Amino acid sequence: MIFSRKYVFESKKTRALRLALNAAVLLVGVLVLYATFLVTTVMTARSEGTRLLEGLYQKAPDAIVVFTGDKGRIRRALEHVAKWPEAKLFISGVHGANTFKMIIAGHEDVESLLASPVQVDMDYEAMDTLGNVRETLEHLDVNGRKMARVLVVTSDYHVLRVRMIFRDQAPGHDFIFYDGVTSDWSQWSNIKKLIIESVKTLRAWFLITFN
User: Fold this and answer.
1) What is the DSSP letter of 56?
2) Cα separation of 95 and 125, whole Å?
3) pLDDT at residue 101, as a whole number
4) What's the CATH class of domain 34-210?
5) 168-193 burial, b for 16+ CB within 10 Å, e for fewer?
6) Quick one: pLDDT at residue 115?
7) Residue 120 three-state SS
């Protein structure tokens, strides 16, 4: 067996070889598990995109929620607002000095998406994903939309963790849909984000499972 001594007495060379083989097997196992997790993260975003198309095919969401933190999210949310102008927009995780006009000004050509004024509320309190989820649920509760149809916009690598936290914080709420802005996986910067996000997702899963 690889993980145990083959002989009662072994030399330094054979012991070093055995330990090296053990380390290699463990490393391969960890890499396989990690790669599986990364693929699951991306595939979750795609499956939720399909569910979004089916769930909101004939009925608009009551609220469109966007979590700040990466490029493309605000524009995607405004594209949905242009499609469903009756839905109220909620932006979570806004920097304290920013206004909606300042956010719009920082995104090229987004004003052309909006044919009418946007119904928008902004959250300045959330500092992380858990905060985003809690502020969103509080906002929905205050506005009488606790069980509303909600469309959450974030990045594709972020969908799995966001969904996990929503299910923990709002069990039984079956009308939350997720739209993940697609990342270009040919860029190292996005691969790095995915790796970092997987660590955060595993940590969130551990805290939710064992808390």
Assistant:
1) T
2) 9
3) 85
4) alpha beta
5) bebeeeeebbbbbbbbeeeeeebeeb
6) 65
7) strand
Per-residue pLDDT tens for 141-169?
Answer: 887 766 678 999 999 999 999 999 999 99
Tell me the average pLDDT of the chain: 86
Per-residue tokens: 10: 């072994």
- Confirm if 135 and 125 have CB atoms less than 8 A apart: yes
- Report which of 109, 142, 136 is spatially closest to residue 122, judged by C-alpha positions: 136
Contact between 41 and 197 under an 8 Å Cβ cutoff? The reply is: yes
- Residue ranges of the alpha helices (H) in the chain? 12-55, 73-83, 100-105, 129-142, 159-169, 188-210
pTM across the whole model:
0.84
- Gap between the terminal Cα atoms of the chain: 38
Residue 25 contacts residue 18 (beta carbons within 8 Å): no
Beta strand spans in 70-124 (E): 88-92, 120-123
Find where tokens 């039984």 sit. Answer: 172
Count the alpha carbons within 13 Å of 45 in the hemisphere toward its beta carbon. 20
What is the model's pLDDT at position 9?
63
How many beta carbons lie within 10 A of that of residue 159, not counting itself? 26
Q: Does the pLDDT at position 126 exceed 60?
A: yes
Torsion of CA 129, 131, 134, 136, to 10 degrees: -70
* Encoded tokens for 174: 């079956």
Highest mean pLDDT among 15-19, 57-61, 170-174, 206-210: 206-210
